[in-house]
User: What shape does this take?
Amino acid sequence: MTPRGIGLALGPLAFALTALTAPPAGMGDGAWLVAGLTAWMAAWWMTEAMPLAVTAMLPFVILPLAGVSDAETTAGTYYSPILFLLLGGAFIALAIERTGLHRRLSLAILRAVGAGGGPVRLLIAFMLSTALLSMFISNTSTALIMMPMALAVLEGGGSVIEGDTPPQDGIAGALPMGIAFAASIGGLGTIVGSPTNAIAVGLLDKLAGVRITFAEWSLYGIPLVLLSVPLAAFIVARVQRVAAHPFDVAAARAAIDGNAVWTNPEKRLVPVALVTFIAWVTQPLVAPLLPPGSWTDGTIAVIAALALFLLPDGTGRPLLVWREAERAPWSVIFMFGGGLALAGGMSASGLAKWIGTALLPLEAWPLLLVALAVTVLVIVITEFASNVATATGIIPVVASLVVALGADPVLLALPAALASSWGFMLPAGTGPNAIAWATGRIRIGAMVTAGALLDVAGAVLIVGVVWLIATLV
Assistant: This one.
């Protein structure tokens, strides 16, 4: 039986078990049924037995029938202001892709960072460019943008396909792998960099009352990206033995160098994107000057989205039209709502409180050790399940632990949220990894080795960066 088939059967069976058996000591009947619903949704999400958005509908059916909340209340739990941040960020990303601004940014960084040196420097230039783009558009979209450029560079430098097998040694395998890793790492820099980030923030707000703003997330995420990209580049370069394989870097640079003039859409989009970013960063300073709760990251994102539909791009049309906006990740947004509804059910039924009580023995551990153990657990899970599914399934447990221990949520929950996107070992683990693998230039052993090393280093790096910055702040 395939993993999908196993998940398809296992989910309903887990729920049936809770429906037919008595709950553990101290747990109410409603909480026990929500535990079964959680196992059901986790099984379907992690094996993708059903479309992710379809699985997200289960709470609307199960929670009212279990007596946890009525249909109207359950429907309300599908909403969070973070949804508007996620949607507005997606619209900005679509406008960047539509105007071609992303390619100009990439080329500018590549020319600035890769103006000299050998293949290792070229690898770092590509990875930095990828990480920067991935802070604002989806990891998978970033990989799709950067991969053709990388292949053009490889061909320009003489790394051509001979026969049926593309070259896989040296920079030929390092560049696709580096781009895949950097796309996932860069998505950690901002809340809008990956849907996983927004999901984690929304769940922490719902379950633990912890509100993390765009600026607060970036305060931890951007330093983590700046440290992680060089580390990943070093690991990939060593595993691929880049320095031992000659490569014509000058010819490669010439293959991507372009002098196209700026278009009107590009010129008009830059101020919108820049003002939006400044507004997100300064939100904590501006919000106290306005009515309470009126100036949020989501509000800023919606204002930016409205501007995209209103401002002309100089060619007789707006910067963004609805036909293009329909490509926004609606299924992820709906799945996000399903995760929020499940989290609401966990709180209303008392399951979240029961989990927190069950985890109280961990208070005897040093909090740093707890944070490291949780981070390692999340990284292991996300290697075998989608990042979004991991965040949706594990963050409620972490939120319960935060409440039970009375710990600073930043020190425990934020490392777990960041770790939800830290999976690099397997081709199917992330969209960027799958795109890199599809080039045929990566050996599975090399990806597993480099990914495992980065996973181990990442657990320490994530916790270390969060704790150091939290201490300084």
